[in-house]
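We emphasize that the prediction below concerns an isolated chain of 827 residues; any contacts that depend on oligomerization or on bound cofactors are therefore not represented. The input was used exactly as deposited, without trimming of termini.
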Amino acid sequence: MTYPYRLLLALLLTAPVLTTPVWAQQPALPAAPPAGTGSITGVVLDSLNRQPVPYATVVLLPPAPNDKAITGIAADDNGRFTFTKLVAGPARLRVSYVGYGTQTRAVTITAGATDAGTFRLPTAGTALAEALVIGTKPVVEVRPDRIIYNAEQDVTNTGGTAADVLRKAPLLAVDGEGNVKMRGSGNFRVLVNNKPSPTMAANLADALKSIPADQIKSVEIITTPPAKYDGEGTAGIINIVLKKGVDRGVNGRVGASGGNRDANTNASLNFKKGKFGFTSSASVGRWFGPNQFERVRNGLLDASTLTQSSKGRNNGGYYYGTLGLDYDVSERQSFSLAGSLNGYGGESTNALLSRFGASNPAQNSLFFRNTDNLFSGLNAEVTGTYTQTFAQARREWSVLGQYSRNDNTFGYDYDQFENSMVPLESTQANYRERSRGRTPGSEYTFQTDFVQPFGEKQTLETGLKAIWRRTGSVADVDGLRRGETTDFVRLPGRSTDFSYDQNVQAAYATYSFAPSKKLNLSLGSRLERTALAADFQTTDSGFERSYYSLLPNGNAQYAFSEANSLRLAYSRRITRPYIYYLNPFRNLGDPQNIFFGNPNLDPELTDSYELSFNTNGKAGSLNVSASVRRTGNAIESVRRATATVGVTEETFANVAANAFYQLNFYGSAKPAKGWDISGGPDVQYIVRRSPTLGIERTGFTAGLNFNTSYKLPRSFTAQAFAYASLPTPELQGRGAANLYYSMGVKKNLLKDKADLTVNVTNPFNAYWAYRSTVNTLSFSEQQEYRGFQRSIRVSFGYRFGQEQQGKRRKSISNDDVKGGGSKQGGQ
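Result of the prediction step, given as a token string:
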């Protein structure tokens, strides 16, 4: 057994260590207080960024020195809490949450309503000196409805990209080609600051490289989204929260990093004066590195054998910029305008040696091919938001509008040398081919939301939304065969001119209420109408159709005590395919392995059920969740043999019904002062059935996520991360195992205004071999992609001004389409 596999097995075997129960340390739920007519309300905020602290523990105590709790509750999603039926008299409120300090405040209960004001919790280990707050959040926060990975606290992210950050987030996995999976599924939505990015939907693997890790504050993993989110049909939502905004004054950051795999520079500038706020950021960077791929395919019907091996390099660059303006029209009215520009491009070169042997020697072939794959993307977005609050607490109305433009290009050039095992001059190529294409896209979005509370324990959320989405694909192919043509000529039947319109109108409502102090319920539903229109200009054909989708959801949360709760959730989501899945262009860059999309795909519908237990205490937190996801009419990648011997093609089709049965443990602990650990195992049993293909695949897979950090003397911090997973059963074979680990050391300099970080990734193996298989009635295939991940990176950053964040603004979340990721330029 090789070293990497021994390490992967050892990591999986250590999983039980991370699941040590912490609930034994929790206090028992205090007895119910005597009935009265008084009430107390308040809100809990993070002292650093003034954002709500959802589910903070609030305990009502008698006057000092008696610390025996009278009663206790958990704050809601917005950090608000309410005690009712209290007896008048003096008391104290004590507010706490894992990863934060504790605040205690004396209050006087009256016969009516009392406002306790705002509690601003300092993060754990903070020191308060006048207006200065210094502290850090835990790397991972486990909350009842989501898991939050605070990327800014992980020093191993410094100088990296969003792909590096997502590798370390709980429940997520990123392979060597940059493809992301959430809870073992590739069907999820990625949002940036709670709003969509067409670039993310169209080409996730490449787009993630254009967001610097230094600009990411946190990653939120939401497994059962409520009705206010668009129809996410399978694993859930990944929300990347960027650093932005200030509460007052001016702040900013400049940074640079370089290593053997990538390099970048970035900067940000923010300020707020009076009612006006300004935020901005900019970055530019490059990535580079080798790639290797091997394929062995055996024909089961014709006794043929195809052997292919390739070596090459991935090179690319990106630029990314954001600009935000906020204006408080009045105490209860605000307006914000935000824009972003995201561009990337590069090439992936490879030298392919292909051998094909058949029972008929006349069909044998041998060739060497030099290929240069080209790609680029440009995404621009602008979003305007108007928000109005009211004298009644929690009542709010907002209107949002967004326009986004996304233009991608793709293409390839190759020279093929028949009966040669080495490359020759281009003039000696037996055949040359080139292709250029583009996938233009645009979106217009309008959305309005209204929140109306009824009393202290009931809330109704409603909203309307409309999306006008247009995309398509235009591509041409030219060829030159030595001895037949003297120059490239357009190849008939290989061009594509395809446009696709997708318009969605939606209405939703969610009613939340608390039948008792221990139980909170939420019921909601979303009704969506989808209208589709496709136009194939090369064949003068097309189609139009529309349909309605009712997407109910609900959850119930029961608090056993202040720190322990049980949550049951259900949701139905719809997943619509995006251009990567729809594009009918036939990519013949490798004529033995043809790829094209399917514009006739139908959407997926998924029913998700989740039962989770959460516990928080001074020693740490633990989340244990069991979930079931069932998807009918699932969109799957399908490989099949063609009429041409030795040639296969790959596309997508609604051919399967999938079920994922999952058990996940995730916890965090502080074994000693300055030492944090978090992580846990994830086990899945997967069932994939396709009557169309006559296939049923079942099997287990498992993964482990582990993160630890330790604060050393002299302002040093050391951090390490590891992720490992076993192979996954796929519809037509088996997916690859995964292993990724990194470690880093950060030193704070210049009175904590600067930092120098050194990161090392996969130091003990130059690459990880991602081995997968495909098995059909016609052929069996083994593939190996080598992800060269060993790297070292040195980063320096300097901060100036005050680092305090401003108000949280509402944002658009077009998370209703199934995205795709190009493997071009993947790392």
